[in-house]
Every structure is written in structure tokens, then in C-alpha cells.
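hey can u check if this looks right to u? its 507 residues, i copy pasted from the old doc so theres a chance i mangled smth
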Amino acid sequence: MNTPRSKLTSRPVQLLMLCILAGGAYASRNLWWTSLNTKVDQMVGKSAPAKDDHAHDAHDHDAHGHDEHGHDEHGHDAHGHDEHGHAEHDKHAPHAEVESLELSAQAMKNLGLTAEFLKPITTATYYRTISVPAVIVERPGRTVLQVSTPMTGVVTQVSAVPGSAVEPGAPLFQIRLTHEELVASQSEFVRALGELDVEERELKRLQAGVDSGVIPPRSVLEHQYAKEKLEALLGAQREALRLHGLSERQVSQIEKDRRLLSELNVTVPENRTIQNELKLSGNDTYRPVAMTQNPAAPLIIESMDVQHGQSIEQGGKLCSLADYSRLYFEGRAFEQDADAISKATANNWKAQALFSAGVTLNNLPISFIASEIDEDARTLKFFVDLENEIVRDHKDEEGNRFVSWKYKPGQRLQLMIPVEEWKNQIVVPVDAVAQEGAESFVFQQNGDHFDRIPVHVIHKDQSSVVIANDGALFPGDVIALRNAHQMQMAVRNKAGGGIDPHAGHTH
């Protein structure tokens, strides 16, 4: 039977096409052979039955599981390399632990690891503390000064500006005195002084007549009695003027000048000394009792209580001056913490103040403890001294000075009160310890590397961590005192590495 010519002529063509396809497949084997091999291995692995012993391939293996080429059952040599020279990767543990971290200079700066935060650790005394809520309050009788007038009058000038800081001797108010009793007492005193002058001159004239025998002695005695009566009256009037608020010096000044007090200038106390008197002059000055907290600190006009032209009675309030240079932390401890607060005070242990903004104040002495429990809140109040500081000091266009203090009454915070003392402890900042599960780590500097050291944490509070002195660290070791958590994240990222090129591939 004859074969058709079309079939005879097509067989060579088919062979040629198969050769071409085979050549192209061989040339592109790197693109599809690995994936195909992986799929086949996965299919074989899923379908192969479980065996207790290890299956061996067609190669003969020696006692160590290597064949005549030095490869094991997975095709790896004694150094863990396969026939292509690639190192073996354990697919069951792709994230091996990395115990050391190398940081570039830029990374060190980003983490803030300056010389301040790379220091040798030392042992120190640690105080276990309790946290007590607190609020900043004024010092009773010291912070606020009420300025009042000692006499009735009319406010004729107001120099004080609410909220401004005033210097010693600066004028606050000018008052025209209308105190009727004071005016009457001064007038009677000055009139009695004049009558006494007349009697003294008369006695001097009569005494000359008695000496010459012209005037009888009885006339001299009558004027002598009148002089003594005036002197007694002046003594009573002096006491009356003192009761009105005048000092002994002022009464003597009135007696000398024979002038009545008409106007009163109220000024800021000078040198914070106690001086409560009226100066006799055209612009007499009254200086109220001053505080003695800090003579160099400015006084703030906290409130203004009178206006220009206002009549004010004796003892009326003019304004309030405040000295915020020293304040109190008022702690409010629970009743069961009373013994701990008393123990800290007795041992002269210092408190620590923690503000919400992260500001911390250390070494604060406890001033005193209240003598009774607050019936409503059931808390025990205690007070810690606070030295304030000025954060802004400027003057406006009119020359008025304004001051801003860092700490203000009403601010809330937490007071850390020591209740137990632990000596010779390794104490580091809380940011120096990284936590991962049940493990805690610090990073010790070792040349240009940081070694991750597991440590045992004995105690931890809001700012510090106490590490056991068990040989993991020694005094003198240099560790990173901040950003340990970020360094721990860097270690984990380094342990994870990049994508494994042999992931999912088995031999």
C-alpha cells in the first residue's frame, strides 16, 4: 500500500519541530526547572507513606550518611553545602537568634546613644516607693499677702496692674484720707501742742518776774499746773494716734512738724521687712507687712479689689500680692499608708515628683504631715517643699513687667514616697531594659557591637529597673541606657533576614 506523499513529507517537519521545542526547553530550564521540581517534590511528599526508618536514595551512603561523592541523603556535603555549593538552610528554624547587634554611627545618633547614655553601670541604693496623688498648693500665710488700708479714705490713684510683677517700693495706690476720728485726733493733738507751747512761754516769762520779785509765786504755780494737765492730755492723744495705726516715730514727727496726715501712698514692701507705718509728708507712705519667703523673688498682683475714686473703709482690702517662689506639694495618701509616710519622714527619705508631661523632680524633702485624717476623703495630707523657677520674664509696651512661673497652684501630679531601702543594687533606667515575653535584656557595648545580655529583673517602677547582681552584668560594664526596645526590634529584624532562596525546596 502506497503512503500518501503529504504524510511522508510531514514526518521530517514534525521531527524538526520537536527538536526546536526540546532545544528551547533546555535553554530556558533555569526558569521552569526549579518550580517544576518543587511541585513534584511536594506531590511526592504528600503521597509518600510515613515510615519509621529513613528512606535512602539510589546512592550508597557511608556510616555518616554520605555517598561516594561525599554528599548526604539530601545532597549536602559534610560542610552543609549541596552540589551547587549553597549552604544548607533549616526550613524549621529560619529565624536563628542573633546575640549581637552592630550599629552604624547614624544609627547610634538616631537611637540617642550619646556619651550620656553609654555609661558604666554602678551599684547604688534603691528605694522602693509608693505612688501618692498630689496637687500643688500655696503656702498658707506665705504665698498670698492681702494689702489693706489702715484708714478710711478715697482712692485717688491706681498704679497697680493686675497680673504684673512689681518691684519693692513701686507705688500701688494713693489714698486721700477722710478718717474723721484720725483727723480729729491729729487736730486735737496739734492744738494741745500749741497750748503747751503757750504755757511754756508764759511760765518762762512769769519765772523771770518771780526772780525779780515783781510777780508772786502763786501765779507761777497756776500755770505750772496747767502745763502738767496739757502734758497728760498729749500723752493720751499720743496713745489714741497709735491706736489709729500711727507709729511712735510718726507721732513724734507730727509733734515736730505740727502737720496733719492728709494723703497715703501704698507701695510694695522693700526688702520684705515688716514695716507698718505711715510717713508724714505731702505723699505719706504706708508699707504693709511683707512676706519673708524669698526677698529676691518678684511679687505678682494677683487680684485688684478697688477702683479709682472708690471710698474705702478702714481695713478695706486693696489688692492681693502673691509670691510663687516657694510652694507646696500637697500629697493625699490613703489612711493605710500613714505609717509608710511617717517612716519616710523619720528617715529623712526624699520624695520624687512625676508630672504627666514627663517632668521629674528628685530629692524633695517632706516638710510635715497633717495631724488628722480628712473625714470626707479619708486621706492623710502631707506637704513637700517646692522651689519654683521663672520660665518667662518680659515687659509690655507700657513698661509693666510680667512673669510666668514653671509650677502653678492647682497642677496635679504623682509623688513617689520611699517605703523601703535596698543597698548595693544595679539600678538602670526603665528604657535600658527590653522585654520580650518572660525574658528581659540589656545591650552591653563590646567594641563596635552591642551584645544582648539576658538579665533577671528584681523590681521595676515607672522610672527605674533593679537588676539582680548575679553575674550577668558587673559594675563597670557599659550598657545602652535608652531605647533598648528599639535595639531589640533591630535584633529580631536581623534574625529574620531576607527571603530564603531555598524556601520550600528540599533535596
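The chain has four domains: 64-94, 100-126+421-496, 129-141+323-420, 152-161+170-317.
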